[in-house]
Amino acid sequence: MGGQKMRFQRIAICDDENVSLITMKKYIEKKAAQYQIACGISTFQSAESMMSSARETMYDICFLDIDMPQINGIDLAEQICKKNPQTMIVFVSGKEEYVFQSFRVHPFCFVRKAYFQEDMARVIRDIVCLLEQQKNQEQSCVIVDEAGYQHMFWMDSIWYLEAREKYVNIVLSDGEKLLRCSMKSLEKELEVYGLIRCHKSYIVNIKKVYAVKHDHLVLLDKTELPIRRGMAAELKKQLCSALIR
Is the pTM above the cut of 0.90? Predict the structure, then answer.
């Protein structure tokens, strides 16, 4: 896979059968290497232990057995998705009658243990396709100016946006672009891309931030930008989140 790399994937596997747990972990590691996906895999032999871990860690993909004692995989998935609705749930079960029951948590897919190799190969291929789509969507954004013209920018090239009266100056890796539009109209639109309104006059690409001080940001190129009073703690959280992804 060329171009921008996919972000690091945090994967969890939960199965009360140790043999199944080991088999799944080895298979996923093999496929991740094949598709050049960087990932960290955590394994759990009970729903309780995984629920405890999920309170601290946001998993991107969870492979869950359904038929487990005390707390089954469907109830476990429900708890995980309450905390992070974006988590992909893949059920792995030897009992196909659970397929319809699992629909209430909207799983990404269902792997039958009796057809493990065949089903897992298909599921991982589908996951890779979805991650590729997400990566491509994250690579660029479109900003519409007041005249209705669309301007496309590669996300990695954007450093920050600066308000200049009725205009916004977009500072890029290879220059600047001045557009007639308002910071207010762009703030919510760009937040999904990791561009944060740090000051009334600035929106910054959090991935370009080197350090957060009490009253300003230091970017990777040592540029300093002011921040709103009391916003340092929130920006530090945003920076930590960006770094682990």
Answer: no
